[in-house]
Amino acid sequence: MSKTDATGEPGATITAADFQDSMYVNGSRKWVLLISLTSVFFLLFALYAGVLAVLLPNQIQSINPDNKSAGLAFVFAVTSVFSTLVTPMAGAFSDRTRTPWGRRAPWIVIGSLVGAVCLILTSQMSTIPMITLFWVGATIAFNSMQSAANTLIADRFAPAERGTASGFIGAGMTSGLTVGTIVAGLLASQLVLAYSGFAISVAIACLAFVFINPEPKTTLPKPDAFNLTDFLKSFWISPRKHPDFAWAFAGRFTIYMGYQAVITYMLYILQDYIGLSKTDANTTIATLSTITFFALVFSAFSSGFLSDWLGKRKPLVFAASIIMGLALTAPLILPTVQGMLIYAAVIGLGYGAFMSVDMALMTQVLPKADGEATGKDLGILTTAVNIPQILSPIWAAWLLNMTGDNYKVLFISAIAFVFAGSFFVLPIRSVK
């Protein structure tokens, strides 16, 4: 306990729970915070998509065209390891931060600035090791910033409003992925300009966000002296003591294992399973992505609002997961372009709802509801997405190799993962 009130003045005793309640925004401030935070995520995910899908592949190809695939795989592999480790660790350090500007704001500002510098330097590199070094630096910085920004959903929005908040942010992320890929494609011949544009945009957005949404001074007691052993032990959250957290993690992990397997191999599915030429397959991917984008944005917004209005998360997460599983059956039953179009629309509806409502649900199953470890705990739940992004392509490649490129088996396995994951939400007791 601390002998200060929520404004930092001496007087009333404040607990962590009291401080958490004092952080929630209301009225017009809530909408300013939500729209500006959505803008930050829009630009950040535009950066991720533009760099990963367009700029890095083009830069590596220009350096070593004969071994471009191996070079790109090396950069992605190293980056994935750091990305997975950094997110929960940065969240934990932001939980321990005590400044007059709050716990999250310093991480958002410093992370965005360091990330911007590293990203601009990445554009100047002419060897794969140096590209890897600076892109990993940018990844660490931007992931640290994102970890703090993710936590703001739980920090600043009351539980009853987190569905709407998650819906907005999910739509912003999805829009950013689409727009970032398009912008990077248009600027692919001007790599320095493209890298710099993304970097500066994110840095400016983060600085503006912190300026117009000042975080209350942290009046929580100072954390215990840092102990590395205790710090590392804190990342283990016992499933027996916190079963709801474990079920949420397991469900998210399992669903993403199925979802990512199909997304990763979409080009090869269209060529080898549907029978399209490489040119037609690439054109079809653009069409499928557009359909999914509009369905997903609509679903993310509407599901988030509906979840808050009903005051329920579990039924919507379960239904969204089932819809995702049903979407995967379309190409299995109808292995044609029409089947893929149905898949694109239905997966957009299901994934949009899942992404927005599941994000809100995660904020309500944390072991410490008083906000003392929100950054760390949400960071751990984020690894339930990051790890499948690494494992799922490996598992899918092994499966296709074992079955002689039998994509029906891949679809059946993905369906099994998604349907299984949908049932993991049902045992959760602390959330309706």
Note down, in words, how this protein is organized.
The chain is mainly alpha-helical and about 425 residues long. It folds into two domains: about 15-235, MFS general substrate transporter like domains (Growth Hormone, Chain: A, Up-down Bundle); about 245-425, Growth Hormone, Chain: A. The chain has 15 helices and two strands. The chain has helices spanning about 15-25, 25-65, 70-95, 105-125, 130-155, 160-185, 190-210, 230-235, 245-265, 265-275, 280-310, 315-335, 335-360, 375-400, 405-425; strands spanning about 1-5, 10-15. The chain is globular and about 60 Å long. It is a multi-pass membrane protein. GO terms for molecular function: transmembrane transporter activity. This is Major facilitator superfamily MFS_1. Keywords: Membrane, Transmembrane, Transmembrane helix.
